[in-house]
Structure formats: structure tokens, C-alpha cells
Amino acid sequence: MTDTDYTPEPQPTSVGAYLTRERARRRLSISEVARRADMQASTLSRIETGTIQAPSTDVLRKLARVLDIPTLKLFTVAGYADGNDLPELEPYLRSKYGDRLPGEAAAEFAAIAKKFGLDPTKTGGDDEAP
User: Fold this and answer.
1) Ramachandran class of 50: left when φ > 0, alpha when ψ lies in -120 to 50, beta otherwise
2) 54: phi then psi, degrees, rounded to nearest 5
3) Which is nearest to 44 in space by CA: 25, 18, 63?
4) Which residues 6+ apart lie within 8 Å of 69 measured at CB?
5) DSSP string computed for the chain
6) What is the Cα–Cα distance from 50 to 95, expressed in whole angstroms?
């Protein structure tokens, strides 16, 4: 595979699709996620299938915790935040990884973003195609 063979994974088009993908990545059943989030499995199923299109922020917080998803990310996918509150890449990496991330790593991440036509100094997806 060459550097030009990269194909980005399609982004989910709804909060339900996003939750389904993240739950499947963790190999968790709807019942198990619902149990851990202290909610009914049928409620989670309705969110994932799109019957419930705007789950409450309390439900999203619980699901973010169980699935280990940043709450702001889940709120953004759900349409409750526009993503403009997201930090630039370097401060985000320092905040998330602290001393565990070598100093040159942020520059490498920025170079990768630029390689794929993204501007790592912009926030909120404003440099990405819709």
C-alpha cells in the first residue's frame, strides 16, 4: 500500500449510526451498553436505529462514559455542539496525552493532517469537506 492508497473511513451520518459503530468497535451488545449506562436496551436500540433522533444530553453523557467517547465529540455528532469549541491540534494533544506524548509527536500529527489536505490550525471541521 502506498501513501496515496489511503481511503478515509466514511463518517456516520447520525448519532445513532455513530453510537452503533462505536459500540461495535468495542464488541459490546446493546444490552451490555444499556446496562452500564443504566438505561433500557430498547431506548438504546431506538437511538441507534434513528427512532429517537435527539436523545437527551444526560443520555449522551452516560453513553459517552460507557463507550469512552469524549462527550463533546458525541454532542457534536448529535448536533448539540458545532465543533467550534474544539481546540487546535497541538493544545488538544498536550491536554489529552500530557507528558506521555513526545514533543515532536504534535509536529508529526500536524504533518499528517497537512498531507491529507487538512489545516491543523483550524477547528470544528471547517477545513473538511461536508
Assistant:
1) left
2) -130, 75
3) 63
4) 22, 63
5) --GGG--PPPPPSSHHHHHHHHHHHTT--HHHHHHHTTS-HHHHHHHHHTSS-S--HHHHHHHHHHHT--HHHHHHHHTS--STTPPPHHHHHHHHHGGGS-HHHHHHHHHHHHHTT--TT--TTTTS--
6) 33
pTM of the full predicted structure?
0.60
With a CB cutoff of 8 Å and minimum separation 6, the contacts of 41 are: 30, 31, 34, 35
**Digit-coded pLDDT (tens) for 31-63:** 999 999 999 999 999 999 999 988 998 999 999
- The phi, psi pair for 111, rounded to 5°, reads -65, -40
Q: Look at the block and give the residue holding cell 459500540.
A: 23
